[in-house]
Amino acid sequence: MGFPFQVGDSAEVTREITQEDVQAFASLSGDDNPLHLDASFAARTRFRQPIAHGMLTASLISAVIGTRLPGPGGIYLSQELKFVRPVFIGDRVTARAEILDIRPDKPILRLRTTCINQRGETVITGEAVVMYEPSAEAGRV
Amino acid sequence: MGFPFQVGDSAEVTREITQEDVQAFASLSGDDNPLHLDASFAARTRFRQPIAHGMLTASLISAVIGTRLPGPGGIYLSQELKFVRPVFIGDRVTARAEILDIRPDKPILRLRTTCINQRGETVITGEAVVMYEPSAEAGRV
Predict the structure, then answer these.
(1) Are A66 and B24 in contact (CB < 8 Å)?
(2) Fewer CB within 10 Å, N- or C-terminus of chain B?
(3) B121 and chain A: CB distance < 8 Å anywhere?
(4) What pTM was estimated for this model as a whole?
């Protein structure tokens, strides 16, 4: 079976980050930092209003990798994240992954991973390394 | 106001990763990779059974940083994650952060971030960089 990807391939997902998402991530992770949940606390910070958890926004990168590129059969080996701008409640974020290189000896992809808001501003940069195990995918019913 | 941390300070949180957590993360992120949700798909992979999303486990690091060290007033600048072992449903994971250094010129901490399972095996390694903005915290009621 050939390796179904090449350098330069890319995929993305877009999602609005809602108040409900921030509440759900706080409950799920236990990260109830008031910077994300308490408008009066957030008003005293440089952001002036609550911001989404960085890892909530980063979870959209997980969605691109787990569902699109490489999708099922992909196994996360590493992820670097730089949180370069805040994401506010109601922002619409596009997470994008692009293959930077493919190891010649193993089915391991390195991807540039970027999240951009509805104003075209980059909010997260970084890279992921993902192994692709096609046996699972090939055997899928 | 003095800087209330020093190199070597550490904090941790422990959580069981349940089937409900994995389902909730899949819904929240959109990452419905069957490796996490479908036992028959996972049975054909090297893991033999569903594993938790790497970013779900990593969200426990967000909890340590957002609630304990530095806690409220902490702002995530970056996070590196290496997913070195799978986390299975029902595993009990301890996420730990330890201050590696503090910038002399700015309130910026570099932390070693590690997740360990109930067998003492490391599942995630990495580092975080976090800014600490005490004004928000100091003004808290």
Answers:
(1) no
(2) C
(3) no
(4) 0.93
